[in-house]
Amino acid sequence: MASVHSSVPAISTVRSTFSSSFSITTTTSLVTLTRSPEYDRRTRRQLRCRCMVQQAVQGAPAAYAKEMERLSAKESLLLAFKDSGGFEALVTGKTSDMQRIDVNERITGLERLNPTPRPTTSPFLEGRWNFEWVGSGSPGLSAARFIFERFPSTLANLSKMEVMIKDQKANITAHLKLLNSIESKFVVSTKLSIEGPLRMKEEYIEGIIESPTVIEETVPEQLKGVLSQAVTTVQQLPVPIRDAVASGLRVPLSGSFQRLFMISYLDAEILVIRDTAGIPEVLTRLDSPTSPIADSVTEYES
Fold it and tell me: According to the UniProt entry, where is the signal peptide (predicted)?
């Protein structure tokens, strides 16, 4: 029994020694795993950079896909204009309801992809634009319908309409052809005022009926005599009157008409505007666009 009792302290001593050794080893291990603050900061910085790179890589395909969708929507709209018969079919009332709703659907699809958030101050707005589509209540279509409802197409024809926008002024030109031999232009000058990033006001200033130009090769034989007499009569007029006739007939329009409209889509090639009734007008550019490097800084009242 004595030998057994005497061995107990020895076992306790071994256990104590082993426990102490294990404790020391554990403490040493903990000290080894402890990281410095500088290491933590560097690791966090690397993680942030990695996240930014991943976002950039993921964002590039998304932007590319959106741009491809926008270009596809533009091409689809231009094809819809062609399928509907173009501007002449529109102003003569030959466009069907199905064609109209199809064009309007494609206009709406393009508007939601508008790449210009502030079109009223964008340099893309200035330049020469051709009217591709005008709504049923627009002033341009009303004037065209007035001509076609009162004169047969062989007597009077509206071939196209275009507008020149420069320095917050617009000149809208309607190209008319009479008897398929006489070309004339009706020009309306307007003033544009910026009222917001999307909204503008248009005030009509003056209308000019330019002196007609005769295409002699297309004049019917039975009208050549009458035309020759008319030219001779004009040449015999007093110089002031002849000059006035040559410069065109001017009709003052100040205070007679104005309208508000919103630019719902604008890029280097297509312009879409809507009036207060929501009726769309679509125009395509005829000249080279202005460089977008320096945006206009024109101020407007909110």
Answer: none
**Residue 199 burial (CB < 10 Å; 0-12/13-18/19+)?**
middle
Phi and psi at residue 138, to the nearest 5°: -75, 150
CATH number at residue 276: 2.40.128.280
Q: What is the helix (H) or strand (E) element at residue 177, kind and residue range?
A: strand 169-178
Residue 164 to residue 14: CA distance in whole angstroms = 102
Span between the terminal Cα atoms of the chain, in Å: 105
- In this structure, are residues 192 and 202 in contact, taking their beta carbons and an 8 Å threshold? yes
pLDDT of residue 268: 95
With 0-12 / 13-18 / 19 or more C-beta atoms within 10 angstroms meaning exposed / middle / buried, residue 293 is exposed
Half-sphere exposure of 279 (CA within 13 A, CB side): 15
DSSP 135: -
Provide the residue type at 82 as one letter: K
Q: Examine residue 31 and state whether it is found in any structural domain, yes or no.
A: no
pLDDT of residue 87: 84
Average pLDDT, the chain: 74
Q: Does some domain include residue 296?
A: no
Residues 248 and 250: their CA atoms lie apart, in Å, by 6
Q: Is the pLDDT score of 168 beyond 90?
A: yes
Residue 149 tokens read as: 């409802």
Structure token pair of residue 249: 């007939």
Q: Where in the sequence is the domain holding 127, given as residue range(s)?
A: 67-210+248-285
Question: CB neighbours of 198 closer than 8 A, spacing ≥ 6?
Answer: 118, 119, 120, 262, 263, 264
